[in-house]
Amino acid sequence: MASVRTIVRLGLAATFAASLTLPAWAERIAVSTDDGLQEVLDAAADGDVIVLKRGEHRGPIRVTREVTLEGEAGAILNGSGTGSVVTVSAPGAVVRGLTIRGSGRDLEKMDSGVFVEKSAAGAVVDGNWIEGNLYGVYLHGAENAVAQGNTIIGIEEGRLNEAGNGISVWNATGAKVLDNSVRYGRDGIFVITSKRNVFSGNRFRDLRFAIHYMYTNDSEVTDNVSINNAVGYALMFSNRLKVSGNVSDGDRDHGFLFNYANGSQITGNTVLGRLQPAKRWTTAGTRSRDDKEHGLPTPDAGEVAQGADARPGPTKCVFIYNANQNRFRDNWFEGCEIGIHFTAGSERNEMVGNAFIRNRNQVKYVSTRYLDWSKDGRGNYWSDNPAFDLNGDGLGDSAYRPNDLVDKVLWTAPQAKVLMNSPAMQVIRWAQAQFPALLPGGVVDSHPLMAPPARPKTVAEGGQP
Q1: Which of 73, 255, 316, 328 could covalently link to 271 via disulfide, CB atoms 3.0 to 4.6 Å apart?
Q2: Where are the beta strands (DSSP E) in 72-208?
Q3: How many CB atoms lie within 10 A of CB 56?
Q4: What are phi and psi for residue 346, nearest 5 degrees?
C-alpha cells in the first residue's frame, strides 16, 4: 500500500500539472442529472471544467465558452432525436469522456453526436463513446480541431446512403483525426475541400469506405487499419498526400483506390486478401453499395467469380484510375483477385520495392505502351516469377512480364475464358515465348527481386498502431 507521503506527493504533482494547463481562476463544476446543463454551460467562464456526474443528462446542448466538458464513468448525454447532441462554437473547447446518443437523422442539417462549428478553432473531441447518431463527429470548418480516441458506432440498419459518416471533415485546415475506432455508418472518415490534415492510428470496420478523400491536399494518412469494409482507402481528386503504414485486411472491392490523386508518396502499406463468402458481395440489400461509386466502373464480369463458392477479397489490392506521378514503394499486396489495376491514362507512377504475393492476377494494364516497374537497378517481388539468380545479386536474371496477349484477350472479351485450355491458346503462349516481339505493350519489371521485403506487421501481429 502506498504511504501517506507518496499519496500527498502524487496529489501535489497532479495539482501542479493542472495549474499549468488551467487559468488560476478556473473552477471545476460538478453537474448532476437534475441540474440544468445548458444553464451551467452558459454561466461558466473560460477555462472552467464542467464535470457530468454518473447518469443520464439531457441534451441537446451548445458549448459557447472555452470550457472542458467531461464526464465521470457512466455519464451519458442523450439528445432529443432532433439536431446535434453537442454543438461546439467556442475555440479551444474540449468535449471528453462522455457517452453521447440521440442525434437527429437529417443529412442536410448534418445532425451529429458532436458538431464542431467553424468558429471553434482548436476544439478537441476526446475519448468519447458516440453511438447511434447520424454523424459521429463533424468538424465543419474548424481549423486545427482534433478528434481523438473516440469510439464511434454508427447506424447499422437501413440504407447505406441514408447513414452519416463516423467523422466528417469539411474545410478544416490542419484538423487531426487520431486513434479513433469507427464501426457502421457510411464512411469512417470523409474529408472534402480541406488541406494539411492528419488521419493516423484509426481503426475501421463494416463501412463503405474506411477513409474517403475528396479535394484535400498536402495531408497524411498513416498507420490506420481497415477491416471488412467495401473499400479501404479511397483517395480522390487530392494531391501531395503521404500514405504510409496503413493496413487493409479483408476489404471487399479495393484495398486502395486512387482516382485523380497525384504527386503522392505511398509507402509501407499492406493489403491482405481474405477468403470471403460470395453472398457478402453478390446479394443486394439495404447495406450493399451502389452499382457505381463516383462514376468509377464496377468490377468486370471476368474479375468476379460466380457461384456460391468463396473468393478472395479485395477484388483489387490497388485500383489506379487516372492518377499520376505517384511513388509506390515497399508496399505489400497479397491475396487479391488483381494485385494492381491501372486504367484511364495513369502516367508516370513509380513502382519499386513492392511485393505482389499470391494474387490471382498480379497486374491488369491494357495498353500498347510499355511501363518498366524498376528504378536504379531495383524492381519488385512477384511470387509467381520462376526466375533464376545465377550471379547471386538478389535480382532475377531475366525481366518479369505479368501479362501476355492471352490476358489482353480475356480482359477485352471475358467470354474467351472457355478457351483457356484449348490448343489455340497454348500455341499463342508458345509463340510469344519464342518470339518476344509478339508480346503486347504493358508492364515489364526489368530487375525483379528474388525475395520479398519484410512485410509490415498488422496490429494483430504486434504492429502499429
Answers
A1: 255
A2: 75-78, 86-88, 94-96, 99-101, 112-116, 124-126, 129-131, 135-140, 146-148, 151-153, 167-170, 176-178, 181-183, 187-195, 198-200, 203-205
A3: 14
A4: -65, 130
* C-alpha atoms less than 13 angstroms from C-alpha of 240 in its C-beta half-sphere: 7
- Residue pair 289/160 in contact (Cβ under 8 Å)? The answer is yes
pLDDT tens by residue, 113-127: 999 999 999 999 999
Model pLDDT, residue 396: 92
3-state DSSP call for residue 337?
coil
SS3 273: coil
Distance of CA 272 to the CA centre of its chain: 14
Q: How many CB atoms lie within 10 A of CB 156?
A: 12
Site of grid cell 445548458: 38
Q: What is the CA radius of gyration of the chain?
A: 26
User: Measured between alpha carbons, how far is 252 from 231 in angstroms, rounded to an integer?
Assistant: 6
**Statement: the pTM of the whole predicted model exceeds 0.90:** no
Which stretches of 22-114 are DSSP H helices? 37-43
* C-alpha span between 283 and 186 (Å, rounded): 18
Instruction: Please enumerate in sequence order all residues whose Cβ is within 8 A of that of 209, keeping only pairs 6 or more positions apart, or say none.
Output: 186, 187, 188, 190, 229, 230, 231, 232, 233, 234
CB-CB neighbours of 421 under 10 Å: 8
Angle CA 264–181–179, to nearest 5:
60
Q: Could you give the CA distance from residue 98 to residue 36 in angstroms, rounded to a whole number?
A: 17
Confidence of residue 317 (pLDDT cuts 50, 70, 90): very high
CB-based burial, 123-138: b 16+ in 10 Å, e otherwise? bbbbbbbbbbbbbbbb
Q: What is the distance between the alpha carbons of residues 144 and 52, in angstroms, rounded to a whole number?
A: 26
Tens-digit pLDDT profile for residues 380-409: 999 988 888 999 999 999 888 886 544 555
Q: Do 84 and 66 touch, CB atoms closer than 8 A?
A: no
Contacts (Cβ under 8 Å, ≥6 apart) of 346? 320, 321, 322, 323, 324
CB 170 within 8 A of CB 193: yes
